[in-house]
Design a protein that fits this description.
Strand 9 and strand 10 form a beta hairpin. Strands 3-4-2-5-6-7 form a six-stranded mixed β-sheet. Helix 2 crosses helix 7 and helix 7 packs across helix 10. It has four domains: about 180 residues, Rossmann fold (3-Layer(aba) Sandwich), CATH 3.40.50.300; about 90 residues, Beta Barrel (Elongation Factor Tu (Ef-tu), domain 3), CATH 2.40.30.10; about 100 residues, Rossmann fold (3-Layer(aba) Sandwich); about 100 residues, Translation factors (Elongation Factor Tu (Ef-tu), domain 3, Beta Barrel). It is built from ten helices and 28 strands. It is α+β, with helices and mostly antiparallel strands. The longest helix is centred in the middle third of the chain and has 15 residues. The protein is elongated, with a radius of gyration of 32 Å.
């Protein structure tokens, strides 16, 4: 709810930056290099609060907010809800490795979000560095850098040598200035939940990123699913603050329960107004596969942001053939309760960045419960996809080959018969399968073990020719029957 009387009170908003790219291309190293040299406060102040999901750097007396790990992983979940959480994107590509599958996904995310961005080529200090190859590959994907006559800015960086970091920050400030990012700290506070978890000592906790207005200590804050009162506000380094202003990632303690990552929040005058405005969140309903195949898993993750991102990526997996059922999902280490739940549901435990005690591991082994742990969301989701694909029933594809009219049966013993006949359609060859057709009905099946003409083995007999067959099948063939030849190919389809 905007107040036009405050229009004159707009100020420049610190840009919110998300770094996207392929795994191992140096995203985390780049963030660490920025933290080391351009931290907003001294390094001695205690470091970054765990799970805050974002941090701020100061450069040329201007503040820049970076979505931190695993905040960038939750970015996909946020954008899928139509939430614009970032103002600027940095597309990271390792200059010694070039474009990879996740680079293409990052380009798609940036384009779908209509996000202003530039390219950071990392690992520029390596002998194998080949920036021109990266430029060519980007051009093939429609990303034309300035070097190639396009509008996309680029910078060469090395987190190891600490080179190109200032150039990168210069580009962030340049794009921010071009975008004219403005906000009004005096208006009703609103923004995005960028991280959420359960603090073992203080209860439900969430990191908010204010986009306009401010959130003051004691304010009532509500999303579509939960409300709370800002009993504690802390900046990204864990220091108590009296208010959260636009672009400032702030930890809030006081929600009734942990809100969903990606949800928008508003500041309300009181709890009654917040409850009146609250809308019930739609329940997550898993698809039901028509064949009835189901993969049941228990999902554990380090923080709610990771959990949300994983579940959102699960929703993108086709489930027409196999349904994915998450029977239990939670934050924190794997417990005996998780293992016992798995025993009752025949589930396997899929975990992201969490551990388990030795006693829990031993219980799982005794109970034949599988625990799989991952450090990268992409790999976890890919593994679940593989498990689902393994449940897809193989498709048997039949190919009709030909038909033979049975003229005589020369020999029959147990399941072996020697018959003579004329090929009336297609062809016949050794190893082909056959149906016995009698008066229009299929009365049995078998296999051609050998084919002869003039008592000589041949590889193939075509339409119009007579031949002798050694036929193997439980049903005896009779003169006047027809043998309908075919092959079968088993295909294991994906999802």
């Amino acid at each position: 709810m905007q107040d036009s009387s405050h229009a004159k009170d707009t100020v420049t908003k610190p840009p919110v930056v998300v770094i996207l790219g392929h795994v191992d291309h140096g995203k985390s190293s780049l963030l660490e290099a920025i933290k080391d040299d351009f931290h907003i406060t001294a390094k001695e102040s205690g470091g970054i609060t765990q799970h805050i999901g974002a941090y701020q750097a100061e450069y040329q007396e201007k503040i820049i907010t970076f979505l931190d790990t695993p905040g960038h992983e939750a970015f996909s979940a946020m954008r899928s809800r139509g939430t614009k959480v970032a103002d600027i994107g940095i597309l990271v590509v390792a200059s010694d490795d070039g474009i990879k599958p996740q680079t293409l996904e990052a380009i798609r995310i940036i384009q779908e979000a209509n996000l202003p961005f530039f390219v950071a080529m990392t690992k520029a200090d390596k002998p194998e560095s080949n920036p021109d190859r990266v430029r060519r590959q980007l051009a093939e994907q429609g990303v034309l850098t300035e070097t190639y006559g396009g509008q996309v800015l680029e910078v060469l960086t090395s987190a190891t040598k600490k080179t190109g970091i200032q150039d990168l920050l210069d580009m962030v400030l340049l794009i921010a200035e071009m975008e004219q990012l403005r906000c009004n700290p005096l208006e009703q506070g609103r923004g995005i939940i960028i991280e959420s978890f359960l603090d073992s000592r203080r209860g439900p906790a969430a990191t908010i990123l204010v986009q306009n207005g401010s959130v003051h200590l004691g304010d009532v804050v509500g999303t579509s699913g939960v409300i709370g009162k800002a009993k504690i506000l802390e900046d990204f380094q864990g220091s108590a603050v009296a208010k959260a202003v636009p672009g400032m990632p702030t930890l809030v303690i006081g929600f009734e329960e942990a809100p969903h990552v990606g949800d928008e929040f508003l500041v309300y005058a009181n709890e009654e107004d917040a409850r009146a405005a609250r809308k019930e969140s739609a329940p997550c309903v898993m698809a039901v596969a028509p064949e009835g195949e189901v993969l049941t898993i228990i999902l554990k993750a380090d923080v709610l942001g990771s959990l949300e991102a994983i579940r959102q990526m699960f929703a993108d997996i086709p489930q027409e053939k196999v349904a994915l059922q998450v029977s239990l999902a939670g934050v924190g280490d794997i417990t005996e309760g998780d293992v016992k739940h798995a025993q009752g549901t025949l589930a396997r435990i899929i975990a992201f960045r969490v551990k388990e005690k030795s006693s829990v591991r031993e219980l799982a082994e005794r109970s034949s419960i599988v625990i799989e742990k991952f450090e990268i969301i992409y790999e976890l989701v890919q593994r679940v996809r593989e498990l689902m694909e393994s449940k897809v029933a193989p498709e048997v594809v039949r190919k009709d080959i030909g038909e033979l009219s049975v003229l005589a049966v020369f020999f029959a013993e147990k399941e072996q018969q020697i018959i003579g006949g004329k090929v009336v359609k297609g062809e016949v060859f050794k190893g082909v399968l056959a149906e016995i057709v009698r008066e229009g009905d299929v009365v049995g099946k078998g296999k051609v073990k050998n084919v002869q003409q003039s008592k000589v083995d041949v590889s193939l007999v075509e339409r119009g020719e007579e031949c002798g067959l050694m036929f193997q099948g439980a049903q005896l063939v009779q003169g006047g029957d027809r043998l309908r030849f075919f092959t079968e190919e088993v295909r294991q389809e994906g999802l």
